[in-house]
């Protein structure tokens, strides 16, 4: 088994593409090596499509094997289970640049599996999985003709870094993934700390140049061992069927696509399709011709719908809902609408509506993540829900699908750069976006509503974040860029380019292309229009809520922090947790202590939280020489009295220091349980405390003392 290997250099690091050693029964397979990271990808496709299928049934699965990092999976079964959120997101990352490059009419069931079988801290297993998947497809007989590659770009210390390591990613103000072919960009995904449009475009340009060596390596490997491609499928729509559908449907469909309300427009187009099907399928066909299939009529109808919509935009500059190309749909905003939540906002843009709710918690509520590179916690979580009623449908209610996970992750990355630092705001934050209506750009409504909900909750974010989805219609040299796209424009258009940011710069982007790619110059124009649209939306948001509220909801926890010395942690916890349990039982608060001595006290009752802090201060308080204390007599001895100044801290008041006269017996002056005033005279090297009652009384008098025993 001699593998066929091609090596190249990307970002100063060697990347090796290999085939011929593993998974040889797949239609195509490839390994990609990058230092200690190894990804194997396989591509398999059925030889014929299933009857009635009129779309590409492509499945992409990215999986991380625990053994890749020398780990054994946790849990009862000790084996990998359902895909993690990261695996789902990376599956989408592979799918999005590859899917548009399959030929029209190719409907054979196809599966791509990319498995991480070794990993280091290089931090590029996701982009290497894109390269491996493209290579597997390109080497196979599957009619995938255009190789794709992907790289990451970071921005560290004012310089771009291609394929940064995990350590470099932690310092980077930009985390960008770009996938493309030799000639064009297919996909962009990333987040930035309010990055300018120009820096962003520079990063994309650098990424595309860095992709080329990986494209060339795939081409070289195919020349050596690539399989002959299957013949391309026949045209999915017979010309005769297209002619019949066009003659019957052109005029009514043009009128239908001018209906502004989504459901009314959909009902009318469905009605037109039913009428055309009835006429064509019931008409006797020429005996020499093949019978017309229902799916051929449907495909022709949808193609006609696509052409008409694009004609309206390119020729007449008018969109389905009557807007111009750069117009934003009407926006309405309500904040603080739910009485018992910590923060809420209802954001409506046209026929898309998001109910966003912010909830505050403590560090106990943080999400714990067990990744191949190590364990970590996540203090900010955003969950996006897309119930079927939002588009007027009925479906079973199950867990979040890949689309919901992807949209939630995009919105989370958009808002993360404006969060306050943990040191000044020690709360965990959960945002939930329930999409109540949808007609395009629901993830961007989530960003806008999420920012408003956090501001309503009193979270001091750096700046409001707004998001907009841009579209593209391209026919040859004719191009139209659309602002705030509808669901119809997303479905029938050529691009979905989501951009989020503050007034200062971009916080997140996501671009998906349905054609064979776009150029950087087109992206520059789209970004400029996105900036204009973003600012328009931000003005609406500021009018509803200019800045974060100064106070939090009375139902939100209050977290007070206290820093103690590390050697005092044991005293606060007590034997078996006795002391800290006692404090929580008396006050009803929640207490967390970390190894550095940072204590967080959480409670919805601020008075109770302050009481807990006072109790802890008493435990960890250190004696100050010269200070007067009201202490409790714990033990009486012949030579003096032991006085507890505060819990766990006791000093000796010698018999000679009890009064300003000679004392024969200590018990003549004090008894166990008495509360007496004492002054701290000295703390020696061993920590022993010397006290004086007579000096304390000389300074402040004895009125505050409380006697319970036989003492005077």
Automatic annotation (TrEMBL):
It catalyses: RNA(n+1) + phosphate = RNA(n) + a ribonucleoside 5'-diphosphate. It is found in: Cytoplasm. Keywords: Cytoplasm, Magnesium, Metal-binding, Nucleotidyltransferase, RNA-binding, Transferase. Its EC number is 2.7.7.8. Mg(2+) binds at residues 490, 496. This is Polyribonucleotide nucleotidyltransferase. It holds the Pfam family RNase_PH_C. Residues 626-694 form the S1 motif domain. Involved in mRNA degradation. Catalyzes the phosphorolysis of single-stranded polyribonucleotides processively in the 3'- to 5'-direction. The keyword Ubl conjugation does not apply. Transmembrane segments: none annotated. It comes from the Bacteria. It is an enzyme of class 2 (transferase). It comes from Leptospirillum ferriphilum. GO terms for biological process: mRNA catabolic process; RNA processing. GO terms for cellular component: cytosol. Its cofactor is Mg(2+). SMART domains: KH, S1. GO terms for molecular function: 3'-5'-RNA exonuclease activity; magnesium ion binding; polyribonucleotide nucleotidyltransferase activity; RNA binding.
């Amino acid at each position: 088994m001699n593998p066929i290997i091609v090596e190249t250099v990307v970002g100063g690091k060697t990347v090796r593409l290999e085939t011929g050693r593993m998974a040889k029964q797949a239609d195509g397979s490839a390994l990609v090596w990058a230092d200690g990271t190894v990804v194997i990808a396989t591509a398999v496709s059925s030889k014929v499509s299933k009857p009635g299928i009129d779309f590409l049934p492509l499945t992409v699965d990215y999986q991380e094997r625990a053994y890749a990092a020398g780990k054994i999976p946790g849990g009862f079964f000790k084996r990998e289970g359902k895909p993690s959120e990261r695996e789902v997101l990376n599956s989408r990352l592979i799918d999005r640049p590859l899917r548009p490059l399959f030929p029209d009419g190719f409907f054979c069931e196809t599966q791509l599996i990319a498995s991480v079988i070794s990993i280091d801290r290089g931090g590029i297993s996701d982009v290497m999985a894109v390269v491996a998947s493209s290579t597997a497809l390109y080497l196979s007989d599957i009619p995938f003709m255009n190789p794709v590659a992907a790289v990451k770009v970071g921005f560290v210390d004012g310089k771009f870094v291609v394929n940064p390591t995990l350590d470099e990613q932690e310092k980077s103000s930009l985390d960008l993934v770009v996938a493309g072919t030799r000639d064009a960009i297919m996909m962009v995904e990333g987040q930035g700390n309010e990055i300018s449009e120009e820096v962003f475009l520079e990063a994309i340009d650098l990424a595309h140049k860095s992709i080329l060596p990986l494209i060339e390596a795939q081409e070289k490997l195919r020349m050596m061992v690539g399989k002959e491609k299957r013949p391309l499928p026949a045209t999915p729509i017979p010309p005769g069927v297209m002619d019949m559908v066009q003659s019957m449907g052109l005029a009514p469909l043009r009128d239908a696509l001018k209906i502004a309300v989504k459901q009314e427009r959909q009902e009318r187009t469905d009605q037109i399709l039913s009428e055309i099907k009835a006429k064509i399928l019931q008409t006797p066909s020429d005996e020499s011709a093949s019978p017309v299939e229902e799916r051929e009529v449907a495909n022709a109808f949808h193609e006609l719908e696509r052409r008409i919509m694009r004609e309206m935009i390119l020729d007449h500059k008018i969109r389905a809902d009557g807007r111009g190309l750069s117009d934003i749909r009407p926006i309405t905003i309500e904040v603080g609408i739910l009485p018992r939540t910590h923060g809420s906002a209802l954001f409506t843009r046209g026929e898309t509506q998001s109910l966003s709710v912010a909830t505050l918690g403590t560090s106990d509520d943080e999400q714990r993540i067990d990744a191949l590179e190590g364990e970590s916690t996540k203090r900010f979580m955003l969950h996006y829900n897309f119930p079927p009623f939002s588009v007027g449908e009925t479906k079973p209610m199950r867990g979040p699908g890949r689309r919901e996970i992807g949209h939630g992750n995009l919105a989370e990355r958009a808002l993360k750069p404006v969060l306050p630092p943990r040191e000044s705001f020690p709360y965990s934050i959960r945002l939930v976006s329930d999409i109540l209506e949808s007609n395009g750009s629901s993830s961007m409504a989530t960003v806008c509503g999420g920012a408003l909900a956090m501001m309503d909750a009193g979270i001091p974010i750096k700046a409001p974040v707004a998001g907009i989805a841009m579209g593209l219609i391209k026919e040859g040299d004719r191009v139209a860029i659309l602002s705030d796209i509808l669901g119809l424009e997303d479905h029938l258009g050529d691009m979905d380019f989501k951009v989020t940011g503050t007034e200062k710069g971009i916080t997140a982007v996501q671009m998906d292309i349905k054609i064979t790619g776009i150029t950087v110059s087109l992206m520059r124009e789209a970004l400029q229009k996105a900036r204009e649209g973003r600012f328009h939306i931000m003005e609406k948001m500021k009018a509803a809520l200019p800045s974060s509220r100064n106070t939090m909801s009375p139902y939100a926890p209050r977290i007070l922090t206290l820093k103690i010395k590390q050697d005092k942690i044991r005293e606060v916890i007590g034997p078996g947790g006795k002391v800290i349990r006692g404090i929580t039982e008396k006050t009803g608060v929640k207490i967390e202590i970390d190894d550095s001595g940072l204590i967080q006290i959480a409670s919805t009752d601020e008075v109770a939280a302050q009481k807990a802090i006072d109790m802890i201060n008493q435990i960890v308080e250190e004696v100050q020489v010269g200070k007067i204390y009201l202490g409790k007599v714990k033990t009486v001895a012949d030579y003096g009295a032991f006085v507890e100044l505060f819990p766990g801290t006791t000093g000796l008041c010698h018999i000679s220091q009890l009064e300003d006269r000679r004392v024969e017996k200590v018990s003549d002056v004090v008894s166990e349980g008495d509360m007496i005033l004492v002054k701290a005279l000295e703390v020696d090297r061993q920590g022993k405390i010397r006290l004086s009652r007579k000096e304390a009384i000389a300074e402040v008098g004895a009125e505050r003392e409380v006697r319970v025993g036989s003492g005077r």
